[in-house]
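Q: How would the structure tokens look for this protein?
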Amino acid sequence: MGRAARYVRKILTVEEVLHSENQPQRTCIGCRKKGSRSELLRLVADASGSSAVLVDERRRMAGRGAWLHPSESCLALAVKRRAFGRALKGATGTAAVERRIKAGTGAAGPLRIPPVAAATTVQPESGSEN
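A: Here is the predicted structure in token form.
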């Protein structure tokens, strides 16, 4: 058997990846239980210098992140424990997080990330069209 035959990789579907046991684990700052990234909200401190905590829906914002289950009980525990200030270096304004959790996530399953609209190009992609 050749060397290449040993390194066959299976291509996974999106559903397999979302429900895979190999997904990165994160710890909720409220209940301190571990969960996969798809089950938790990523939170970041506002970059403008205010003490506000923002919900990073796309999980791409710069800076240190904290993770929280999208439930009112975990939010209450995090506020009671003053976990936002410790996890995000002094950030304490949780109004955006409270609005996001009260808006609900629908089913109790993994979070659904909204699709990103494709950007339209203003200029041609190459200069050869002229």
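The domain at 23-106 is CATH 3.30.1230.10 (Hypothetical Cytosolic Protein; Chain: A;).

Residues 106-116 have pLDDT under 50 and may be disordered.

Upvote if useful.
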